[in-house]
Amino acid sequence: MSGNDGSGVRRGSAKTRREFLTSAAAVTAAGGMASLLPLGCEQPKSKMGQGALAPMLDDVSGSRSLRAHGAARGLLVGCAVNPDHLDGEPEYARTVAEQASIVVPENAMKWAALRPNPTQYDFRRADDVVVFALSHEQKVRGHNLCWHEAIPAWFAGTVTKENAAQYLTQHIQTVAGRYAGKLHSWDVVNEAIELKDGRPDGLRNSPWLELMGPSYIELAFRTAREADGTALLTYNDYGIELDTQEQIDKRGQVMMLVRRMQARGVPIDAVGIQSHLSAGDAPGAGLIHFIRELRAMNLQVFITEMDVNDRKLPEPVAERDAGVAKTYRDYLTPVLAEPNVTAALTWGITDRYTWLNGLPHASRADGKPERPLPFDYDYNPTPAFFAERDAIDGRTAQALPGANPYAPFHPTQPQRPQFE
Ligand code: 9MR
């Protein structure tokens, strides 16, 4: 059927993108990942020049990559991705393919991205992430089904107390249903705790809470389980990493929420600890105790969004990189040693696209771009890369519970929806 693949629009570019996404050489089992350049791509260039770059790339690729080190120790390792860069920037695609055994769309599966209007869905960019991941034997986290942010503009005038449950249910049935059987996990509810809102149960006064009361959480998880019987259903939150009083209290409310859910038989498989840190942050005994308590409750833990802002460090790059790397090391070494921590993702792979540089209120006073991730602006590995890899190595070799990151995993590619 020429000119129509079901997507309705941009057919030509979608096909080109799909061809590109699937053309990158497949990653083979651990140790055999030598050639990951998408077909027809040149060796990556850097300011450092080819001579200096080649040995450095060699040092972090193939069996020396984060994903290979993770695979040897029962840990999925990866990052948030943006389908536009996977599509348009070979060096980005190559780095993601080479380093990650799990990816998560940074924005492409949020309501604002999927829901152009109350009645239609646009899955094109979300599909692109899934197709890329599957063609590189990577697992995919879904992020997210229910959050107080990234809600489309039409939401406020359309979703009411009367129809909110219906909107939430229908969204989850459609989105989780579309990818059923293909995802590693879903962040079903994101960031539902906010102590400043002053409720005894710690719940945030989100639009969902205001429209439906606390029952929205249970509805979201139950609906997600019905729609996808295999994805690990996750509650994901931030500000629960440290042993400051505020974070101890918030962690306590997350624990209470998860305990209430389990007591009511609500399906939950994992807790996501986002881990947006500042240089100098270090975990205390409280975080490790929390992870162990979750283990006793038969729950997995994912480090879902790690990065380290260098805002408080002086300008010289070497000092900032050392401070950021130390924070990765100090944080990940004890955390990744816990056996129920089964996945660790950074919020991006390269400093070039970190969300931190898009925050006017929070960026560095000297205006310098931040360096929070394992690869710098030019795709050179940063000291944080090596800190992360060492922390992975510090973990006892073990099998992933029920999942080998390199197990054959080739479900049918998602079909493109009608979208006009
Ligand atoms: O990095 C994301 C940024 O590009 C988006 O504009 C923003 C709003 O959708 O969300 C950012 O990602 C957030 C994630 O979805 C949830 N935890 C906090 C992340 C950083 O704000």
Give the SSE layout.
Elements: H1 11-23, H2 50-60, H3 66-72, E1 76-81, H4 83-88, H5 90-99, E2 102-105, H6 111-114, H7 124-135, E3 139-143, H8 155-158, H9 164-178, E4 185-190, H10 207-212, H11 215-227, E5 232-237, H12 245-263, E6 270-273, E7 276-278, H13 285-296, E8 300-309, H14 317-336, E9 341-346, H15 383-393
Parallel strand pairs: 1-2, 1-9, 2-3, 3-4, 4-5, 5-6, 6-8, 7-8, 8-9
Helix pairs in contact: 1-7, 9-11, 14-15
This protein binds ligand 9MR.
What's the count of strands?
9
Number of structurally distinct domains? 1
Catalogue the unreliable spans.
1-52, 401-420
Could you tell me the mean pLDDT?
85
How far apart are the first and last residues' alpha carbons, in Å?
A: 18 Å
What fraction of residues sit in β-strands?
Answer: 5-15%
Shape: globular
CATH superfamily: Glycosidases
Order of helix and strand elements from N to C terminus: HHHEHHEHHEHHEHHEHEEHEHEH
Number of alpha- plus pi-helical segments: 15
Known CATH architecture: Alpha-Beta Barrel
Q: What is the radius of gyration?
A: 21 Å
Helical amount: 25-40%
Strand order of the largest sheet: 1-2-3-4-5-6-8-9
Sketch the major β-sheet: 8 strands, parallel, barrel
